[in-house]
Amino acid sequence: MPSSWSSSLRFELQFTGENINLWGDKLNAVLGHADYAVAGFLTKALSGNVALTTANAGDDEARAAMIKFTGAGPFTVTIPSVSKAYTIWNACSAAVTLSTGAGSSVAVDPGDVVPITCDGSNVMTPGYGGLSIKDYIGAVAWASAAGALPAQAGNAGKFVKTDGTNASWQALSSADLSDNATFFGRAVALAIVL
Question: Which residue has the higher pLDDT, 39 or 10?
Answer without folding.
Answer: 39
